[in-house]
Amino acid sequence: MVPFVFAIVETGEELTAYWAVDAKPKRTQAIRRLENIEANPVVEFVVDGYEEDWAELWWVRVSGRGRVVASDDERAIAIEALREKYPQYRTRPFTGPVVAIDVDRVTGWSGDASG
User: Does residue 12 come out as left (phi exceeding 0), alpha (psi in the -120 to 50 range) or beta?
Assistant: First the structure.
């Protein structure tokens, strides 16, 4: 399990999740996750919400295909979405790769039996 921050961009009926190799200190921007996506682009990630009241628990699983963004236009869209969601990114340059996850399926669960 590797935690990461992401932003979702919806275009028509298509969803794409974006994340970036940011400028936080690390040995290299050629991180293992990029090698893993290149070797096998099938990816999943889970977002969950925890509350002391278990009726409020929930999770969402997103399945799709990962790829490093090659287009300057798509990279700009991804960076804008990340900056909009995370104020910390508004003043930091993006010099590393940006990854897109083209969403194929979204599943989820909620502890609230009514919804």
Answer: left
Q: Which domains does the chain have, with CATH numbers?
A: 7-70+92-110 (2.30.110.10)
Distance, in Å, from the CA atom of 115 to the CA atom of 100, rounded to the nearest integer, reads 30
The model carries a pTM of 0.84
Each residue's pLDDT expressed in tens, for the chain with a length of 115 residues:
677 899 999 998 999 999 998 655 445 555 678 888 999 999 999 999 988 998 999 999 999 999 999 999 999 999 999 999 999 889 888 888 999 999 999 999 998 855 4
